[in-house]
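pinging the channel bc i need a second pair of eyes. not urgent but kinda urgent?? the chain im working w is below, pasted from the shared doc
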Amino acid sequence: TGANCWRSWDDLKDNWPWMERALESRINGEYHKYAGPGCWIDPDMMIVGQQLSYGFDHPSFLTPNEQYTHVSLWAMVGAPLLIGCDLATLDGFTKNLLMNHEVIAVSQDRLGKVARRIRHTDAESIWVRPLMGGFTAVALVNRSPIAREIKVSFKELDIDGKCWVKDIWRQKCEGRHADDYVVTVPPHGTKLIKIRSVDCSKCE
């Protein structure tokens, strides 16, 4: 009583199956119905950087692609961005992973609505989160161990017409797109974008 978040999963270990199950299982994919201001879901601390799991000190066993997916999904569902690694030993990759202000902005968006999963297959999943300012964040997750093309139509996102698309991790506008968005996503990777109607003059 009185807490602002609730644990939704067991203690995480830094491997792909364990991390993915924390959010991608059928049950966990429905948590958006119960999450929001005052009741954020907490699927445990992020398992990036130097870890102490499995009884010894080691760099995270997640691949770089998997770590992008990990942080992207934690941001999409508004989970607390807690880390369980040694700050004194952060490498450049991990620092960049944790300090991207546009990814943090998705996590902390003041609209207070969390992502819902609109597609879930053995090969891929797609998560959608409405943001302030008429933006929509979309995470296209490749669950496959090989690179593959993922396509999402704007109709699936309840958006009509042409849209601006911006790559959130790279903080780069990808221009206008009509009707749908298609991208090749690396193994166990995630393409994190935000989109907005071209009624607006630019990506931002």
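so Residues 75 and 106 are 6 Å apart (CA to CA). and The longest strand covers residues 190-197. — does that match what u expected or am i reading it wrong
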